[in-house]
Write a structure and sequence with these properties.
Elements lengths: L1 H32 L7 H24 L1 H16 L5 H4 L23
Helix pairs in contact: 1-2, 2-3
Length: 113
């Protein structure tokens, strides 16, 4: 009787660990495949096979021609993210500088009279 309870406890414990690992695998695969629909355990395993095969192919291409693979990856990243502004442009003020003295603003009083 005690052995049965203990074996059931171990079975549930290992099953919980397995299910958590499978969920994590599913999240990783969905991020690679840009998918967010829920999957069954079998679906997650099939996705994992697809992701692994894709990554293997990318590694083979990179090993055969590293320069072309790098250019291809950069093009794909640009297509995914869209145009990006360089950091030095992001930190500029939104208004162009105007010639002449600065305008008289409350925080920038004019010359004394």
């Amino acid at each position: 009787m005690v052995l049965t309870k203990f074996s059931n406890f171990i079975l549930e414990y290992v099953s919980g660990i397995f299910n958590e690992a499978l969920k994590e695998l599913g999240r990783m695969c969905m991020s690679h495949l840009k998918s967010d629909k829920p999957q069954t355990k079998l679906g997650i395993l099939n996705m994992a096979v697809e992701v692994i095969m894709t990554l293997e192919q990318q590694v083979r291409e990179r090993n055969l021609n590293p320069k072309a693979a790098c250019l291809k990856r950069r093009e794909e990243e640009k297509a995914e993210d869209g145009p990006k502004l360089p950091p030095h442009i992001l930190h500029q003020t939104p208004y162009p500088s105007l010639p002449g003295p600065p305008p008289n603003l409350p925080h920038n009083p004019g010359p004394p009279q």
